[in-house]
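Problem 3 from the worked examples.
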Amino acid sequence: MNIANKLTMLRVAMIPVFVAVLYIGFTGSSYVAAAIFILASLTDYADGYIARRRGLVTDFGKFMDPLADKVLVFAAMLWFVERGAVPSWAALIVIARELAVTALRLVAARAGRVIAAAKSGKVKTALTMLCLTAMLVLRDPPGWVYGVGVAIITAATVISGAEQFYKNKDVMNTNDNK
């Protein structure tokens, strides 16, 4: 297993630790959880950079890297929903977008086509991770802070999802009777 894939697996391993720290709720746990979230987010950047720079892009990495990102974000979003800080409809938009784009990629793959991550998707991931980090670090911030974070996350999610479907609308129009 190459270094990029090891970083992805490290991110996967950090997710249950992140969730456990959130739910245990000891003094300073929000800061510890934020630190884990930040480290996990940085491994996302690092593994992609290393894989592209060193020519270490693998099928495992193409599958596992975005899955690790999704699970990390879903874990944080759902914790905020449970806490009442993020409305469930916002989490549903994020989850639905991720599942829809994944389905689009699977349909395209079946037709022998690869849909790469769009720049808006990378911006969405960065903004989402930044907003979630701010929401984790700012212990009991005013409600508007969560509102702004949710607005940014939701807008970036909708825009990037719409772009993927618009740019790849031909994939949905294929007549595949297999």
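Problem 4, a separate protein:
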Amino acid sequence: MFCVPVMIACFYLQTEYNYLIATVVFIIAYITDIIDGWYARKYNMITDFGKLMDPMADKLLTAGAIIMLNSVGKLNPIYTFIIIGREFVVSAVRLVAASEGNVIAAGVWGKLKTISQAIAIPLIMLDNPIFRNINVPFDMIVMTISVILSIWSAIDYIYKYIRGKKYGS
């Protein structure tokens, strides 16, 4: 979470390397999140605080990045709305399920959505390096896949919630 304001500040620096610096901060934040999760699972250090704050930090990192990209015209506002809207919907479904004593585990679609965002965001920040030279909008292809996965994973969470209510699990 501490990397998010640093990333935002770097993104708006008045230097020709601002996007590169912000991208490095984004990647460091993402890698440390992966390491932190692995470490907590490996050494059985999972806490209720971590269960709550880790997904929140992920959402803040992603939301901060896509809002910044949107603000400078690098990302379609509809994509921004869908990605952030999905996070609100999924969080609401999780809260309702938790209030009923149910836990909806992260599904494969949500994990694929996260991975595709972690790839697309740096590519967009850096103006699609490598692929722009061959006129392939790989950054936008991956982001479009991410948006589709965002929608699909939200539907999957809602389905799991409804199914759990129907069968009492």
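Solution to problem 4. The chain has one domain: 3-167. Residues 138-167 form the longest helix (30 residues).
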